[in-house]
Every structure is written in C-alpha cells, then in structure tokens.
Design goal:
The protein is mostly helical. The protein is built from 6 helices and no strands. The chain folds into 2 domains: 17-54, no CATH class; 63-170, no CATH class. The protein has helices spanning 17-36, 41-55, 70-90, 108-124, 127-130, 134-151. Helix 1 (17-36) packs across helix 2, helix 3 (70-90) packs across helix 4 (108-124) and helix 4 runs antiparallel to helix 6 (134-151). The N and C termini lie far apart (76 Å).
Length: 185
Amino acid sequence: MSDEPDGVPELDVPVGMFEDIQAQLARLTVVVAAHTGEASAEGEAETEDAAAEAEEAPFPPFILLLDSPQYDEELRALIEWVEGVLVPGYLGEPSADAKWCHLWFEHNVAIARLHAVWLAWQELTDPATCGYTGPSVWHRDHLDPALRELRSSSGPFAGCTKGEHQIAHRLPSLVPSAWSHGDET
C-alpha cells in the first residue's frame, strides 16, 4: 500500500525540470543577496556556490559580443538556421515593401536581430521549457517585430535591391563604444 492518499494524480514532470528551477533559484538568490546586502555568514557559502553555478549557466552570449573563433562558429550556426528554416519557411519573394538581402550576414544589424530571434526560437520551440504556447509567443514577440524592422523601407536592407548589395549605406563613422574590447593607444 502506498503512502500517497487516494485521489492524488500522477504528474508527468519533464526530466531535469527541478534541476532547472533549482539553478534559476540559485541565480536569483545571488542577485537578491547582492542587491540587498543580506548575505549571512551561514548563507555565504551557498551564495558562493550559487554564483559559481550561475557563471557556468549554459546560456549563449549575444553574438556581437563574441570574438573569433566563437563568433565565427555562432555565425555559421546562425546562417544554417536562417537559410534552412527562416528563409524557406517565412520569407516570400522580396519586394519594395519587404526587402531581403541574400548577403544578410554582411549587415551587422541583421546579424544582431536574427541572432536574437534564433536564440528565442531555440528556447520557445522546446515544449520542455515553454509548454505548447512557446511557438505562438515566438512568432508574436520575436519573429514578427524583427522581420518588420529588417524588411522595412528604413531597415538594414534599404539600399539593397535584387542583384545589388550595399552595406556602406548603413555604416556610421566610428564612434567610441562601450562594446569595444580593444585597448586604446
């Protein structure tokens, strides 16, 4: 005879769900403790363990912050996804109102937006992480706004036409940036 009371339903919980929740809780605990200064002596070891775990989080960094060879590997994977999933499934024939550049990977703005859409797609098309509404959320919150921006008349492909590619029209002069990693001499 079971210790469970009668009428308790068996739950089908995805493997690893509780570990994911524990990791998220550990990261949040670190953030809260850091912002409130409430790290107690007994909780300090736990906080350090959680901080180490948070640093090892499996979340990929934003592509424009990567250096080679990680940038090249991430761009190669992004190109495979865009050319294998996005272009054939979501992009119709380019037009004056909906531009697309076949050399999109030479436009940094396009790389940044498409990488963000791809990261969201990876998360939101996995029922284990987002349930069954993930794809709808991905379309509404990520894909549609990104494509509107990319394909608009003022987007990064504005100067590109069928057969002619331009990137210089979108490149501003160099300005100091917080994103620069190099030492200034």
